[in-house]
Amino acid sequence: MGARIDKQMVPLSTPLETGQTVEIITSPHQHPHRDWLGFVKSARARSCIRRALREEAFNQSVRLGRDMADRELRQRRKRASKEELKRVAEALEKKDIDHLFAAIGNGDISIGKFINQLFPKAREPLGDIQKESRTKNAEALRIHGVNDLMIQYARCCNPIAGDPVIGIVTRGRGISVHRRGCSNLPDLSSDPGRVVALDWEADQAETFTATIQVTGKNRTNLLSDITEVMSNFGIPIVGASVKTHREEIDSQFQVEIKDADHLETLLQNLRKIPNITSVYRLETPSESSS
User: Fold this and answer.
1) Are 219 and 272 within one domain?
2) 131 and 196, same structural domain?
3) Which spans in 77-213 are helix H?
4) For 4-18, what is each residue's pLDDT tens digit?
């Protein structure tokens, strides 16, 4: 936590002089920080710090991946034995169950891939899954003056119920739905007939996938607090990516929500978590807060 040089409190980064008496103050709750690498002198010390940082990142990923898997199984009213989890880990070329959960937690393995490997008999053809993921919400929209056209939700802005949206008639792919103000909306001033007015149905019961960015100052159980808030609101996590830099945590979560109001309520409650510095919605998972 700190140090005393000749009985005076000083930062750990303070250079030593010959003949000084040094006392290192420790705590069982203290963890190494990445910025310590900037002032330690020995290769052994740097190696120990790096090892501790890797272990901490791994343990965080294990906890998050386990939580994501448990919640997905509860939603499906399924259980997985230790032997089944070992089988999945081996099939996905992971060393053990902890490494399997770590891969889920850091985004290397999607929760869908995990479930398909765990219950292969229930697996759906990939093409059907992809088709459903982009068209299942079509009944949530009411289209003015247009019937029997397939609706595609634009991947560039990922609209959800409650967003102001606009429809673009595409060639051979039905109507592409974008959020108003999407940077990828084409200029149709010369072809206004391709623009379709859309409204959300008031009683729509579908769910949508949204990506949120959560950053903060890292601390023990911060990830658990984040996922607990989502669990309390009954919001499934379908994907996640977590990175740590110095004392900061930078994470993205793909969550299933009902509409824009539902999402805004979630964001407001995540902002109340101690040590959280920023929470906002991303248009696509590839965006970054940096």
Assistant:
1) yes
2) yes
3) 82-91, 97-105, 111-118, 126-135
4) 788 777 777 777 788
Q: Identify the domain boundary among 122, 142, 173.
A: 122
Residue 125 and residue 151 in contact, taking contact as beta carbons nearer than 8 Å: no
Question: Is residue 131 domain-shared with residue 189, that is, in the same domain?
Answer: yes
Pairing mode of beta strands 237-245, 248-257: antiparallel
Summarize pLDDT for 200-258 with one digit per residue, the tens: 876 666 788 899 999 999 988 898 899 899 988 888 888 888 888 778 899 999 999 88
CA–CA separation, 77 vs 166, rounded Å? 38
Range of the domain at 213: 208-282
Same domain, 191 and 139: yes
pTM of the full structure: 0.54
DSSP string, 59-112: HHHHHHHHHHHHHHHHHHT----HHHHHHHHHHTT-SSHHHHHHHHHTTSS-HH
Structure tokens at 110: 């999607």
Strand bridging mode 151-153 / 175-179: parallel
> Do 149 and 185 fall within a single domain?
yes
In the chain, the DSSP E strands lie at 2-5, 8-10, 22-25, 141-143, 151-153, 165-169, 175-179, 195-196, 198-200, 208-217, 237-245, 248-257, 276-282
Judging by beta carbons within 10 Å of its beta carbon (0-12, 13-18, 19+), is residue 179 exposed, middle or buried? buried
Backbone angles phi, psi at 101, to 5 degrees: -65, -35
Distance CA 206, CA 226 (A): 24
Q: How far apart are CA 90 and CA 100, in angstroms?
A: 9
Mean pLDDT per 10-residue section of the chain, whose length is 290 residues: 74 78 71 73 83 83 82 83 94 94 81 86 46 42 50 84 84 74 80 72 75 93 90 87 85 91 94 95 61
Contact 116, 76 (CB under 8 A): no
